[in-house]
Amino acid sequence: MSGKETKGGLKQLSPIDIYMLLPKTNCKECGEENCMAFATKVVNREVSIDKCAPLLTKQNEKNYNKLKEMLKPAVKELTVGVGDNAVKVGGKLVMYRHELTYTNPTAIAIDVTDEMSDDEILARVKYTQDFSYLYIGNDLKLQMIAVRSTSNNAENFKATIKKVAENTNLPIILCSFDAAIIESGLMAVPKARPLLYAATKDNWKEMAELALMYNCPLAVSAPNDISLLRSMVKTLNEYGVKDLVLDPGTFPTAGLGDTINNFTMIRRAACQMGDELLGYPTIGTPIVAWTEPANSPTVNAWNEAYTASMLVTRYADLLIMHGTEGWALLPLTVLRQNIYTDPRKPVAVEAGLRTFGTPDENTPVLMTSNFALTYYTVAQDIESSGNAAYLLVVNSEGTAIDSGVAGRKLTAETVADAIKDSKVEEKVKHRKLIIPGKAARISGEIEELSNWQVLVGPRDSSGIAKFLLDKWK
Amino acid sequence: MPERAEKNSDLALPREILDLLAGNDELELEDVDMIVEELQFLYQPGVMPALQRMVAARAKPTSLLDAPFALPVQKYPSQIVEVTLGATKSQGGSRGRTIKIGGEKSPAFYTFENPTLNSPVVSLDVFDSKVPIPKAVKTNFNDAIEDPVSWAKYAVDKFGAQMITLHLVSIDPLNPKPSTPAEAAKTVEDVLQAVDVPLVVGGCGDPQKDLAVFEKVTAAAEGERLLISTVTLDMDIEKSAKLIKQYGHVVLAFSPMDLNQARELNRRLLEFLPKEQIIMDTTTAALGYGLDYAFTIMERARLAGLMGDPELQQPMSSGTTNAWAAREAWQTMDPQWGDKNLRGPLWETVTGLTLLLAGVDLFMMLHPAAVRTLRNTVKRLSEKQGTADVEKIANWVSAKI
User: How confident is the model over B369-393, as a mean pLDDT?
Assistant: First the structure.
């Protein structure tokens, strides 16, 4: 489907637009067959124009700059922090993820305050830094520490910033509406390029001075008032502050509708209506859920987590959170991974026989569907089990096991055919097929049609290692 | 001098310059180093000082510059179809109330464009025989899940279910003793007797058996405006659609994460059924296990429908319960990932909320906490704009929590 239905007044780039400004030498230095092929990849953001060596020469400077301008993302990309842990935020090219992959996954910051004990601060910093979950080949992480001034004491704030910076290289967000306190914090990390949170209609001038002096990105806060937000952006731009982050306010419970509306309007204005004043990354603060009275911290953490999840879907580039519960942060970071994957990635993998480790004629044969997520999960579990194995990937038309069986996409016939087509019978001496527990219902039919003995494996592939240990002789 | 004003507007001047010409500037004169010739600008008496002030402002404004925001609204040529589920006595059924879904004129909850006409609805799952159900869910229903009638009653009485989805999984021919179409229809009648909310009736996924069961069910529940879940491309579509029409029900058209198949199925159903009797389900995959595909298919379907595609204008339904297929939803994991009794329902919640923002109108869900959060969120997102309390969050930065 073309992006037509979602494009507003903005012109969509075509490969020709790019090609016209390329050197047209077909030199292949970029690794592509010709300039047109390169232009196509550029339009799809699969390659940077910087890969075109002739374009970088002095004589092509004008065209290079034109291309840079044409390819400029609707949402500015900027960097928080320095060095290896610096985090890029924004850089969004499109509003809807089917148009083109989203860039720069929402950065998640966990807060500490300048009134927490040293132990608590260090524990929270360590938690944030060490957070890691391996999800189909991706390491899900947290990105930043937000330091809040709750004491309203400049010296406390500075000391806390210093402590945090001594214990982590993660980028920091300095949070106070008092510019004097922010300045004090900056003294502790003058070259670390933290995000300053936040300029308001009252303090913007002082904050702007700090952002310029310390070369820091600056968040702009205008709760539920996008006109004010634009006004401040325009003013700060004129003032010389170019790296801005927009905060239209995150409202817990009652104001959730306004919150989602504001984030949506900002992103639409930037991506579809060419509004440059709103073409900056956005910051959400689901942490506000903790300011609501609740019977237990669990309720606050729950509310914070689901609010954050909606903001990941609806256009937040940064989030500040308080809860450090695995049950809350795991679904959130997995969602972020989902939303930011390349939508062009096919839903199905190729059917056929896969090999793990060094198999021999006694190696177990397992079966799964060709739904990409199922396949990658099973493959990861077999790999981490350390067993040699054959994995028969059956064409279930890209459906998962249970829905494939229920919808008759994964049947005894497709399995029997897959066994034959894969020639696995020439590779192993035995005739034993391990099928997923969720396909148990078709085990009898498979045995009839294939003449293989079927062993019903675990319902979840995390049980494969144990299953092989117990049942494979 | 009207002519002159007109001439100025022809120049397509930047907004701030026009503001200055209009004299509503409050900027102070500071150091100016502007080369006037660079501006493609007709010199007029009185313009220069204003221009100079503007340039000075660009160097360092001393007060906030005006930049009003116009709502970024867009027009859509089409509207999503409105579908009514359930029928009251006067309408030929026996339900206590009916539920309307669909009717959107904008993408999900773009209330800055159009108010929410019909809030999305949650239907609670009930199974007619034993299926593997996560412990985190079971504990909420005690013994009620032993039979579908008590389960349905419990879901309505205890959790205020707006709708019930009765899954007739017992009919599956792969079961050792599958129940017959007549037995299944009896179960439907029993549940209709026990609760008065609109009902969804689901089959087992076998195209032949499902149709045989739907034949009995649609007749037995004539006039109740059930949602029959599901009809797929590999079923006898004409026969299915005619049953739905003859006995006054609504069909759920299921396609496996493929917009073209969704279109084709709707197109074929529309040959036999009015559009007000079709809802579509483009497949829900669990958070972490394909939710990205499910989300994008639904978002694209909704946008395409609004932009005029007549084959994608049906309201959407999601089998959000599929969230529990994710191992992270039900497994006991390393302690750092917390209590699965919270992780599981949050998994379902996040799956549902993500699809809510893609445009889903009807959710089939399992865990009461997930259901409650989804319903509360729907309520808040449907509210008029301007309910945000700015004071409430003004001090979050220094809040002691």
Answer: 91
